[in-house]
Every structure is written in structure tokens, then in C-alpha cells.
């Protein structure tokens, strides 16, 4: 399945959608309330899905399983012509506003320096600063706050004092089951699906953070984590490691690799972070490949500026595209 949150421009209300054949988007609740049921999909499963307002709620219990069975049944009927969908249920590609697929993750956890090529450029970068680093023996990273989430086709707001805005395209792993200190064999069952996410950073602030062994502020400004467009369930992918991961700034290819170049794989990351407890809706960011601006001998021309466009893509998972715009001058305390 490819699930997403969308809005109709004329109403603005958030709804659950699913990718449909020919690139269209189907309204999940309207589809199931009017067209689904029968022996292959018990009405009790349909009712379970209809109670959900967001994809996050479907991650609880057997919501995704129920929805998968219901959508498969409807697609079969649509394919043989026995199911007809009206204009209030099926929307052409590009006619709806897509929002990020997870609304309220309890935790967003990053795996840092998790691509071999990015680790190499990081070692070189920090050696030049007189602070040598070694390859991590276990996953290491930082927490990305949910307040940094942003739309996959929206705007990244660059505050006026941010002059070193950098980009990182990453695989987002969305957790679908509660997990605490799990075994490796159980890790795959904890994954609800995947998405694309940008981990943006103000490098100047991050450098100050890191002097205090932190990455709190520079990584967590509002809109510094565009995510989407969809939540793609694992059954949609034959081999995760074969997927390409790329990022462009104004059409210039800056990052290009495959997920097979990750040092720590998804299952290992899930096992590691299950030590602090994982809940449905939590997101793990799986690191970025080489090519970030700060790694360049002269990074200044590569930092992102107002008016730039960042596009990020993972094959078979999705592509997002965001514009960068200057934010307002500081307003002080409000309310």
C-alpha cells in the first residue's frame, strides 16, 4: 500500500488517501464506507478502518492489515470493471494537496553517519578540524523533534540569521508495533512502512551544539524535516537495498547512492532503538549519503538559500520537492 494524507483545496480538511492505479488518489473512508465489505473483507474490519482519522491511528492494532485486505478487494473489483468510483472518491494525480504521512510521531530518532561514503567525508571533515572521529561500533545519532516536520511539497522557512542551511536526504522508517529490547528476528515485524524525509540543519548552530555534545537546535528548527509524500508498506518493495537515494538543489544532483550502502540496516536500527522503547508512529531516520554542503572544501556556494528548490527521492518510495523561503523577522513572545 501507498498511504497518504491529503486535502482538497476547497475544503482544507485532512483525509486519508491511498495511491490507486494510473496515479490517482482514492479517498479511503469514502471508498470503504460505500463500496467495500463481503465475505473476503468482513464489515468489522472495514468499521475498524473507518474510525481512523489519520494514518497514525491505523498503526494501532491491526488497522494496516485490515486496510490492506479491504483495498486489495476493492482494487480487484475496480480492475474487472465491477466497481465504479465517482469524482468525490477518486482524484486525478496532482489535484489534491498532499501532507506528510505521519502526523504526531512520539519520537524521531536519527542514525548518524550511516552511509559508508558519508562516513568517509565526515572523517575527513573532522580531521581537518583537528577532531578525529572513528567509525561507530553501534548506531549513534540524535533526536529530531516532531515540531520540525513539514509538508513534502511545501516551504522550508529559513530564519534570517541562518546562513549555513544544509541538506540531507534520508530514508524514514515508520514503526508500526510497540517494541522494547527486541530480538533481531522480530525487527522486521515492527516496521509499518517507509517514506522520504529531509534532515535539514543550520550548520553554524549545529557546530556550537556539538561543542556541548548535542545536535538539538541546529537540526530542529520548524520546517526542517519535510516528509512524504506517502507511507509505503514493505510489501511494495522487493529489495530495500537496491533502491537509489538522491537529492537535487535547483536541478543540480548533490547526493546519489543506494540504500545498500547503509552501514546499519533497518532491522539493526530498530533493534538498537528498541532499547529506549518504540511505539507505533515513531520514525527512525536512516542517515544520508555523501554530498552534503558542509563536506565541500568551500561549502559556502553549496549552502541552501532563499529561492532555492530541494528535491529528494528514493526509488519505489517517493519524491518530495520543497521551496526555501526567508522567514519573518523575529517577533518575540506572542500570546
Question: How would you describe the overall organization of this protein?
Answer:
The mean pLDDT is 89. The protein has helices spanning 28-35, 43-50, 55-58, 63-79, 116-128, 203-211, 266-273; strands spanning 2-7, 14-19, 25-27, 90-91, 97-99, 108-110, 149-150, 155-158, 165-166, 169-175, 191-198, 201-202, 225-232, 244-249, 252-258, 283-285, 309-314, 318-326. It is an alpha+beta fold and 335 residues long. The longest helix has 17 residues, at 63-79. Strands 1, 2, 3, 4, 5, 6, 7, 10, 11, 13 and 16 form an eleven-stranded mixed sheet that branches. A five-stranded mixed sheet has the order 8-18-17-14-15, with no helix packed on it. The termini are far apart. It folds into two domains: 2-98, SH3 type barrels (Roll); 100-326, Fumarylacetoacetate hydrolase, domain 2 (Alpha-Beta Complex), CATH 3.90.850. It contains seven helices and 18 strands.
Amino acid at each position: 500500500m501507498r498511504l497518504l494524507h491529503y486535502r482538497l483545496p476547497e475544503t482544507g480538511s485532512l483525509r486519508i488517501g491511498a495511491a490507486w492505479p494510473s496515479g490517482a488518489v482514492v479517498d479511503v473512508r469514502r471508498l470503504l464506507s460505500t463500496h467495500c465489505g463481503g465475505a473476503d473483507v468482513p464489515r468489522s474490519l472495514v468499521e475498524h478502518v473507518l474510525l481512523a482519522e489519520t494514518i497514525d491511528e491505523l498503526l494501532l492494532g491491526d488497522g494496516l492489515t485490515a486496510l490492506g485486505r479491504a483495498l486489495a478487494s476493492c482494487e480487484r473489483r475496480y480492475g474487472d470493471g465491477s466497481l465504479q468510483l465517482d469524482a468525490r472518491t477518486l482524484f486525478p494525480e496532482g489535484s489534491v494537496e498532499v501532507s506528510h504521512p505521519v502526523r504526531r510521531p512520539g519520537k524521531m530518532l536519527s542514525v548518524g553517519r550511516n552511509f559508508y561514503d558519508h562516513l568517509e567525508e565526515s572523517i575527513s571533515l573532522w580531521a581537518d578540524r583537528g577532531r578525529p572521529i572513528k567509525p561507530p561500533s553501534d548506531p549513534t545519532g540524535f533526536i529530531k523533534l516532531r515540531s520540525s516536520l513539514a509538508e513534502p511539497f511545501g516551504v522550508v522557512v529559513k530564519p534570517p540569521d541562518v546562513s549555513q542551511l544544509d541538506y540531507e536526504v534520508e530514508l524514514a522508517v515508520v514503526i508500526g508495533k510497540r517494541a522494547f529490547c527486541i530480538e533481531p528476528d522480530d525487527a522486521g515485524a515492527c516496521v509499518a512502512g517507509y517514506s522520504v524525509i529531509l534532515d535539514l540543519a543550520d550548520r553554524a548552530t549545529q557546530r556550537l551544539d556539538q561543542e556541548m555534545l548535542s545536535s538539538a537546535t541546529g537540526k530542529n528548527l520548524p520546517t526542517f524535516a519535510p516528509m512524504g509524500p506517502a507511507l509505503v508498506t514493505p510489501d511494495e518493495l522487493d529489495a530495500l537495498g537496491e533502491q537509489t537515494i538522491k537529492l537535487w538543489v535547483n536541478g543540480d544532483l548533490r547526493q546519489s547512492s543506494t540504500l545498500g550502502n547503509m552501514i546499519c540496516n533497518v532491522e539493526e536500527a530498530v533493534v538498537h532503538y528498541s532499547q529506549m522503547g518504540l511505539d507505533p508512529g515513531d520514525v527512525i531516520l536512516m542517515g544520508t549519503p555523501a554530498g552534503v554542503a558542509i563536506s565541500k572544501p568551500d561549502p559556502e556556494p553549496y549552502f541552501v538559500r532563499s529561492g532555492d528548490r530541494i528535491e529528494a527521492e528514493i526509488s519505489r518510495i517517493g519524491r518530495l520537492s520543497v521551496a526555501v523561503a526567508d522567514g519573518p523577522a523575529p517577533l518575540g513572545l506572542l500570546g
